[in-house]
Amino acid sequence: MPNLAIVRRLEAVGFRAWPAASIQYDGSWQIRLTAGHPSKRLNSVNPLDPSDHDDIEGRVERAARRFGSYDRPLVFRQSPLAPPPLEAYLDALGWRRFDETIVMTGAIESLDIDHGMDHLPMRDVGRYVDASIAVHGREQSLKPGLTEVLSAIRPPSGLFVLEEETTGPVSTALCVHDNDLAGLFELATRADKRRSGYGRDVVTAALRWARHRGAETAWLQVESANTAAVALYKGLGFGEVYRYAYRQKPGY
């Protein structure tokens, strides 16, 4: 069983690092919605207290109406903070579980990050967004929404892009420095450049930047199915703290 105090802290810094446009609460269920970006983390119900499970059916119905007003399918993001009766309720209705994600941490002084070239973060949000969209292979229509999300981040953040002179951006990362914690987000390497060391280089450059700023612990989220990335982070010295997954009703 993971340490729930640590889970609560990482969940809180994760919400600050990837801010939703609209945040509402139904008890301790945080309802996050963002019209301009389809990210599940920005459009999901996040239960934050294992003991808060009164009137589950009514609260799920209210959440569905809120998501409907945004033209979004209802999605629950279930971490160890989700109440077990809610899990059982969704199981009984046949809601599928998908995109299991591992949350990992590592003491920065112990991580293997002192190799590779130093790269300074860029200040141009628009240029970073263009690079991130290209590296992830996403639709250009996401640019306004991603720009809005990045511009809303309040803790200091570093935008990292590795580029080749002839082919353009090959790897990107967002590093958010929140007190003693450094969170890594939007990590990606272009499909034709994977397994060439770029992912490791962008991660280590971002973490050296965070260490210079005084961060002591690094953390990140990676889908459990991404075995290459999980192996990379374990090789750097990260360890698993907890997992979460998304739930959605059948047919979506």
Give keywords.
252 residues; alpha+beta; Aminopeptidase; 7-stranded mixed β-sheet; 3-stranded antiparallel β-sheet; 10 strands; 33% helix; GNAT_dom; Bact_Acetyltransf
Could you please describe the fold and organization of this structure?
Pfam families: Rv0428c_C (PF24553). This is Acetyltransferase (GNAT) family protein. InterPro entries: Acyl_CoA_acyltransferase, Bact_Acetyltransf, GNAT_dom, Rv0428c-like_C. Keywords: Acyltransferase, Transferase. It is a single chain. With 252 residues, this protein is of the alpha+beta class. It has 2 domains: 4-100, no CATH class; 105-243, Gcn5-related N-acetyltransferase (GNAT) (Aminopeptidase), CATH 3.40.630.30. Helix content is 33%, strand content 29%. It has helices at 4-17, 56-69, 84-92, 125-136, 143-152, 198-212, 227-236, and strands spanning 22-26, 29-33, 44-47, 76-78, 96-107, 157-164, 168-178, 181-189, 217-223, 239-248. The chain has a 7-stranded mixed beta sheet with strand order 4-10-5-9-8-7-6, sandwiched between helices. It has a 3-stranded antiparallel beta sheet with strand order 1-2-3, with helices on one face. Helix 4 (125-136) crosses helix 5. The mean pLDDT is 95.
